[in-house]
Write a structure and sequence with these properties.
single chain, mainly beta, Diaminopimelate Epimerase, Chain A, domain 1, 4 helices, 18 strands, 38% strand, globular, disordered N terminus
Length: 292
């Protein structure tokens, strides 16, 4: 008797190739979108689903450059199909992917991110240094609502508790909360409460930071569209910038996250902030037609 094969398992149909990568544990599915369509909500859900799909924090789509200074552009999608404007660990992964594909041949080049032009430099030990732009503390630009003037810290009432945080934009919005003990920080409750509050857009990333010295911090981040992740590059930049601005850190800081370490350097408030960290290729894959 002939076996009837469901159409979703028909290997003769076109498949979508992807790369699985991570930066300090912050993991991504990389898609080559040059000359093809962008992922819809269904595909975004499948790619990010760790049980019934591929599994990742965010989806990165490589596209043609937007200006003559860059070699490529990229887009960022979360599990619900919404777009993000910044991802530091993702920028390093895109840079490494471009080098492997032969699209970047020099040790330094530029990328078009959703939030603007980023510089890339490969370090001598094989890590990637990304120029993440100048941190922006203006409430109207973050955006942070109900505050007209920028402050070092803001205190608001959320779910019957007073929460004190710093606020800034790294191309995407961030709230940074200092804690005494990173292990007991209320990441899973305070993170979503701030995202659902009237003070930020739901896209805000919420960082919880413990200072161990002027050169080192511990950081956990509850990210938009992903929940708590093993690392957040823009969150690391935001935490360091906020604490340097308050005079609590030196200009070069090691950020220890759940998934690894990042080095953040910020000269002053008129200069871009730089993030250096590792990149790893996990595997290559193809998605069967039934999930496209």
């Amino acid at each position: 008797m002939d076996m009837i094969i469901p159409s979703r398992f028909n290997i003769s149909k076109p498949r979508l190739k992807f790369s699985k990568m991570h930066g300090a544990g912050n993991d991504f599915v990389i898609l080559d979108l040059r000359g093809t369509h962008y992922p819809d909500i269904g595909l975004c859900r499948f790619l990010t689903d760790r049980h019934k799909g591929v599994g990742c924090d965010l989806i990165l789509g490589v596209d043609i450059p937007k200006n003559k200074e860059s070699i490529a552009s990229y887009h960022i999608w979360s599990s619900d199909g919404s777009k993000s404007r910044q991802c530091g660990n993702g920028a390093r992964c895109v840079a490494a992917w471009l080098i492997r594909e032969g699209l970047a041949c020099d040790a330094s080049f530029s990328l078009d991110s959703p939030s603007g032009l980023l510089s890339v430099e490969i370090t001598q030990d094989g890590e990637f240094c990304i120029g993440m732009g100048i941190p922006n503390f203006l409430p109207s630009d973050i955006p942070l609502f109900n505050f007209a003037q920028q402050q070092l810290e803001y205190t608001v009432r959320i779910t019957e508790n007073d929460v004190t945080f710093s606020a800034l934009s790294m191309g995407n919005p961030h709230a940074v909360i200092e804690v005494d003990d990173i292990e007991t920080a209320a990441v899973q409750s305070t993170g979503p409460a701030i995202q659902q509050s009237l003070f930020f857009e739901p896209t805000v990333n919420v960082g919880f930071v413990q200072i161990t010295s002027r050169k080192e911090i511990l950081l956990r981040v509850f990210e938009f569209g992903a929940g708590e992740t093993l690392a957040c590059g823009s969150g690391a930049c935001a935490a360091v910038a906020a604490l340097i601005r308050k005079g609590k850190l030196d200009n070069s800081v090691t950020v220890i996250l759940l998934g690894g370490k990042l080095k953040i350097e910020w000269k002053d408030e008129t200069s871009p902030i730089f993030m250096t960290g590792p990149v790893d290729f996990t595997y290559e894959g193809e998605i069967v037609n039934g999930n496209l």
